[in-house]
Design goal:
There is one protein chain. This protein is α/β, with parallel strands linked by helices. Helix content is about 45%, strand content about 15%. The protein contains 8 helices and 6 strands, in the order αβααβαβαβααββα. A 6-stranded parallel β-sheet has the order 3-4-2-1-5-6, with helices on both faces. Strand 3, helix 5 and strand 4 form a beta-alpha-beta unit. Helix 2 packs across helix 3. The structure holds 3-methylbut-3-enyl trihydrogen diphosphate (IPE) (2 copies) and magnesium ion. One 3-methylbut-3-enyl trihydrogen diphosphate binds next to strand 2.
């Protein structure tokens, strides 16, 4: 009886889902709208996906909001994106905090507008003790930049004599990444039909399952998320070992 009941339970969701939220521009273009309208709707999708992850019991969600290469877009679009971020940070923080969400931001702080840096630091401080979903927002994030900075910090420790070269292990290296303290993503989802990582969590995704969907990010719903999770559950994760 008990065994049958257990079998019917849905499998546990992946502990860490990371999403490359792509396709806002195409969504807007398809409707004859300005790109910023796509980014606005995309922000609503992000909101919905946070709620869905909480409902499904996902422990960690990382969303790619702005890459280190996105500075190469026209200044007006960069301004629009920063503007939306400002609005959402202010608007969502109370609700996220009351839901027990712990916010963190990964990526380089340097190039971000000072008021946004202040806002994200305040959000991290305020939600630091929360015990619910960990929501990592990748902002001015690029994996290669992250890895180079980790290598530089380690080189400095070795040069200073506080770390021996043989102590530079995978675990030691990962301590210098922005994702320190987070498990590696189990599932990486990219929307909009593109099948590439675009400099996202390269180290951390070494054994992640990749799921690509043609859905444009503003059209992404809890349903799309559940389909991606179902696809994840159909995969056989071997981590280089073999079964049987
Ligand atoms: C994703 O949508 C949002 C960001 C990269 C900031 P895009 O703006 O890349 O949308 P497409 O790829 O042009 O459709
Ligand atoms: C990746 O999307 C970055 C984010 C989703 C924030 P892009 O639209 O910038 O990626 P490319 O240029 O198509 O590789
Ligand atoms: Mg894109």
């Amino acid at each position: 009886m008990e065994a049958a009941a257990t079998r019917e339970l849905a499998p546990a969701p992946p502990a860490h889902i990371a999403i490359i939220m792509d396709g806002n521009g195409r969504w807007a273009r398809n409707r004859g709208l300005p790109r910023v309208a796509g980014h606005e709707r995309g922000a609503e999708s992000a909101r919905a996906v946070v709620r869905a992850c909480r409902e499904l019991g996902v422990a960690y969600l990382t969303i790619y909001a702005f890459s280190s290469e996105n500075w190469n877009r026209p200044q007006t679009e960069v301004n629009d994106l920063m503007g939306l971020l400002r609005i959402y940070l202010k608007r969502e923080i109370n609700e996220l905090d009351s839901q027990g969400v712990r916010l963190r931001f990964i990526g380089a702080r340097e190039r971000l507008p000072p008021d946004i840096i202040a806002e994200i630091e305040a959000a991290e401080r305020r939600t630091r003790a929360n015990q619910g979903l960990v929501l990592a927002v990748a902002l001015n994030y690029g994996s290669r930049d992250e890895i180079v900075h980790a290598a530089r910090a380690i080189a400095a420790d070795v040069a200073a004599g506080t770390l021996r070269p043989d102590q530079v292990t995978e675990d030691e290296f990962a301590k210098h990444l922005h994702t320190v303290g987070m498990p590696n993503p189990d599932l990486v989802i990219r929307t909009s039909g593109e099948q590439r990582l675009s400099n996202f969590l390269l180290w951390q995704s070494a054994y992640a399952e990749l799921v690509f969907t043609d859905v444009l990010w503003p059209d992404f719903t809890k349903d799309t998320l559940q389909q991606a999770i179902a696809e994840y559950h159909r995969r056989d994760r071997r981590f280089g070992a073999r079964r049987g």
